[in-house]
TrEMBL record:
Its main location: membrane. It comes from the Eukaryota. It comes from Coemansia erecta. The lineage of its organism: Eukaryota, Fungi, Fungi incertae sedis, Zoopagomycota, Kickxellomycotina. SUPFAM superfamilies: Mitochondrial carrier. GO terms for cellular component: membrane. Solcar repeats lie at residues 17-106, 122-209, 222-328. This is Mitochondrial FAD carrier protein flx1.
Amino acid sequence: MQRSQQQTKLAGSYSGSLAVDHALAGVGGAIVSTVAFHPLDMVKIRLQVDVSARGEAVLGRAVRATKHVIRTDGIRGLYRGLGANLAGNCASWGLYFAWYTWIKEQMAGGHTPETASGISTLSPAQHLFSGALAGALTQCMANPLWVVKTRICTTSPKDPSSYRGLMDGLWQIATKEGIPGLYKGLAPGLLGVAHGGIQFMAYEEMKRRFKNSRPDNATGEFSMLQYALMSSSSKVLALSITYPSQVLRSRLQQQPKSTLTSLPSVATATAATGAPRMVSYTGLLDAVSKMIRAEGIPGFYKGFGPALVRVLPGNIITFVVYERISGYFRGHATHTSI
């Protein structure tokens, strides 16, 4: 009887809002994973914007890109853009979990959409819609941060036009390119909002199935290994489907053509240096057309290997930390649910 009540009792909140609880848990997970894996994120972005001809080994390009950063800027160069990355990831994960939880609450008729053991009460279709809509709203709010992060990670601090930091980047883009500059890459970003929907639909369903297969687990808490398996499996599925939109977004968010041609590291880039060879695009359709002609379909999956290496451990850490903090909030809830 006690186990049954635990499974059907709705979750309470620690802060007074379940959405805020999940947002805080998401921020905690984002901080840990971003600090740990930022160098891989930088290499991934540099490979995404690199227009090198097809056929070059991905591992070789990744190694050359890493060596180029260290040779040009030292070990500290691998953490260039960390501030912008932290701001972007914390804002994105915090906003995403807040929106996701709030949308689920609306779909549940204003009631709490999960049990006291953290299992969602909604259907897979509702998870897909909630995740996609939350992703779209988050993308619109956080896009300026990602533009700055991409530009910082693809330039050296020695370049005269590089940004000194997050606020400097936001200011320069706003004054030189206006609001449109802050929202470059938004279109492919919105095309990729299905990523969150697919990932969370799969993740929530795996949690439900794991829970149903272990009715003796009264608390509903999973082991770190189970969280790792569920989060990584759902991430690989979502990333495989939506990765091309991330490459397109990075291509559109790179420095404008007038700036690119003035950068010594880009103007003299060769396959041996490891510097990304970038071109300018007028928009989404222009980027798709040029990439297909010059690089083929594999061009849309450039950086996929480093992305997997980067996001899988980072995703596992994010979700484990997120679930642990969420579990703490549920266990110490001071506000009852309806």
